[in-house]
Design brief:
6-stranded antiparallel beta sheet
């Protein structure tokens, strides 16, 4: 239901968000993206995008998808769709920072980071992934979508081999819209001993 914008909707601000308690918050800022260069920080509330207030969007989605497990994804999508547009377009966003101060930023949208993947008639996906070791030796792997198994699965396997002696592993798929379902079996196979 986002207002129509001109051109291809491939542009990104570099903001990832979630809706919590009826408010939209920045949950991560992609390094090097327009939002990062503008100084936007995690934890800021997204108040308006191009003059449209965010809070009034959420009650109807909450009601319609009350018992749907994808409700949180739909809430986040309502924000994400408004932060996108054509590459080179600008979007004006008003935030409330952690101190309660109002901050307004105008962002020029860019092609998202990651490997561009074309899958049928879907819009392009941009695959990103990252492996890390957290405090206490816990393994951490995050990826943006279940696409491009030729690229993603070897990277995941490499990370799992590195985490074999870890006390725990986090697979972070927050914001991941899904994709090729069979990839889930390959990922789960790393956690099952028997064939």
């Amino acid at each position: 239901d986002a207002p129509a914008k001109k051109g291809d909707r491939g542009g990104s601000s570099g903001i990832e968000s979630r809706v919590i308690g009826g408010k939209a918050f920045v949950t991560s800022v992609i390094p090097g993206a327009p939002a990062a260069r503008a100084g936007i920080r995690t934890g800021w509330e997204i108040r308006t995008i191009d003059g449209e207030k965010m809070r009034p969007l959420f009650p109807a989605i909450e009601k319609q998808f009350k018992d749907n497990p994808r409700k949180d994804y739909y809430l986040a999508s309502a924000v994400r769709s408004r932060l996108g547009g054509a590459i080179g377009d600008t979007t004006s966003v008003v935030f409330r920072d952690r101190r309660g101060k109002t901050v307004e930023k105008t962002l020029v949208l860019e092609e998202p980071a990651g490997k561009k993947i074309i899958f049928g008639n879907f819009p392009p996906f941009h695959l990103t992934f990252r492996a890390d070791t957290l405090r206490g030796g816990v393994g951490y792997f995050t990826f943006s979508s279940f696409f491009d198994p030729v690229t993603l699965m070897p990277a995941f396997g490499e990370a799992m081999l590195a985490f074999m002696d870890s006390p725990g592993i986090i697979i972070d798929i927050r914001g991941n819209p899904g994709g090729i379902a069979g990839m889930g079996m390959g990922i789960a196979g790393w956690f099952v001993e028997e064939k």
